[in-house]
C-alpha cells in the first residue's frame, strides 16, 4: 500500500512539473512598442541653441525615442531579443552667429536636422515574474547610425551649431537597463516602463503583447 502511494505521488509530481513547464513555455515571444525620453529632448527643453545669444527666430524640437523590441524567453529568468528605435532633432534660425572649431565665424540662417537610428540585441534577466508581473534588468548592445543635414553656408557643421550633435556615421551604442516592469492587464497584453543609462533613452513607456 505504501509503495502504491509513493508511485501515485511520483506520478502526480511529474504531472505537476510537466504542467508548470508548459505554463512557462506558453508565452515565449514578447513584442513591445516603446516611447522614451532622450538627450535630444533635453537639449530642446533647454532651448538655448548652443548657448548662442545672437540667434534670431530660433527654435529646437525633438522627438522621443520611438521603437520596437522583441524578446524571446529561453528560460523563465532569461530572454534574448532585438530592438530598433529612431529619434531626431530639428533646429532652425533666421540668423545665427557661430564661431566654428577652426576659429572662423559664420553669420546667417541655418536649418539643421540630426537623426539617430539604434539597432541592438537585448539580453534580459527576469525576476519576480509571478502572475501578471514581470520585472527585469539587462543590457542593450548595438549600433547607433547617425544622420545629419544642415542648410547653411561657409562649410558649417552640425556640431558647430549644437555641441552634442554628430555628423553622419555609425557608433557603438551601449545601454544599461537597471530596471524594467511589465504589468499584464490580461494573459497577453501589458503596459510598463523601463529605465536606461545610455542610448537610446533614459526612461521609456511600453505596451507589450506576449505570444
Structure description:
- With 211 residues, this protein is of the alpha+beta class.
- It has one domain (27-210): Porin.
- It is built from three helices and nine strands; from the N terminus they run αβαβββββαβββ.
- It has an eight-stranded antiparallel beta barrel with strand order 1-3-4-5-6-7-8-9.
- A hairpin with a 5-residue loop joins strand 4 and strand 5.
- The chain is elongated and about 60 Å long.
Descriptive terms for the model:
single chain, 211 residues, alpha+beta, Porin, eight-stranded antiparallel beta barrel, elongated
Summarize the structure.
This protein is of the alpha+beta class.
Task: Compile the SSE list and pairings.
Blueprint lengths: L1 H24 L3 E9 L1 H8 L12 E4 L2 E11 L2 E22 L5 E23 L5 E19 L6 H4 L7 E16 L4 E7 L7 E8 L1
Q: Hey, roughly how much beta strand do the residues contain?
A: over 45%
Mean pLDDT: 81
Q: What is the CATH architecture annotation?
A: Beta Barrel
CATH topology name, in short, is: Porin
Q: How many strands?
A: 9
Largest sheet: 8 strands, antiparallel, barrel
Look at the structure and give the CATH class. Answer: Mainly Beta
Structural class: alpha+beta
H/E element sequence: HEHEEEEEHEEE
| Number of separate structural domains | 1
Uncertain residue ranges: 6-24
- Terminus-to-terminus distance: 45 Å
**Share in helix:** 10-25%
The best one-word shape is elongated
Strand order of the largest sheet: 1-3-4-5-6-7-8-9
| Helix count, DSSP H or I runs of 4 or more residues | 3
Query: Could you tell me the radius of gyration in angstroms?
Result: 25 Å
